[in-house]
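Exam revision sheet. Question 4 asks you to relate a sequence to its structure. Input first:
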Amino acid sequence: MSFLNMTKQVLAHPIDFYNDLQEPGRARIRDGILMIALVIAFRMISLLLSSILYQQREAFEISFVTEAVSIIVLWLTWSVSNWGVSTIQDGEGRFKEILVGSAYALAPYALLIIPISLLTNVMTLQEMPVYVFLTGFLFVWVAFLLIMKVKIIHDFTLYKLIFILLLTIVGMLIIWFVFIMIYGLVNQAFNFVFGIVKELNLRV
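Answer key, C-alpha cells:
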C-alpha cells in the first residue's frame, strides 16, 4: 500500500490501519521518516502563515531548527520509551511498527495545521475560542491515534494500556533527563579542556 493510501487509512480507519501495520512489509521506516518530514515542513509553513495576532512569539524568537529538532526528539523518545516499556510488559509490537505507527499518528497535524493557520488571518482576537477548539481537537485526534497504536499493536487490555501510557511518559522524562545530564557533563569537560589549553597557550 502506498504512503498516501496508508495516510488516508489512518485518518479514516485507524483501527484497521494499526491492525494492517503488523502485516509483513507494511511498517516501512522510510514512510515514517517521510511523515515526520511533512509534519516539520507544515509546522514551519504554519508559523509563517499564522496571523500576527495569534503568534505567541516574536518572529526573531522562532527557530526553525529548534522546531524541527523538537518534533524529531518527541517522536523518537516516545517510540523508544514505548518500545522499552512494552517489551518489559510483554507487548507484541516490534520497534519498527512502533516507530512508523507513531509517525502516522501525526497525520491529522500534517493535514490540518496549515488550514487552521490560514484561518487565523480572517479571525479576530474575540474569535480565539474557535482557534483554541480547533487546535485542541487536532491534538486530541493525534493523542487518540497514539493510544490506538499502543492498544492495537501491543494487544493490551484497557487497564494495562493506561499503565503503559503512564510508564511511557515517565520513560520519556527519564530519557530527556539522562541526555541533559550527559550534555551538561560533556559541555563541562570541553570547557575544562579548552580552559587548560588556553592557559597553556598564555604561559608558553
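Marking note for examiners. DSSP finds eight helices and no strands in the chain.
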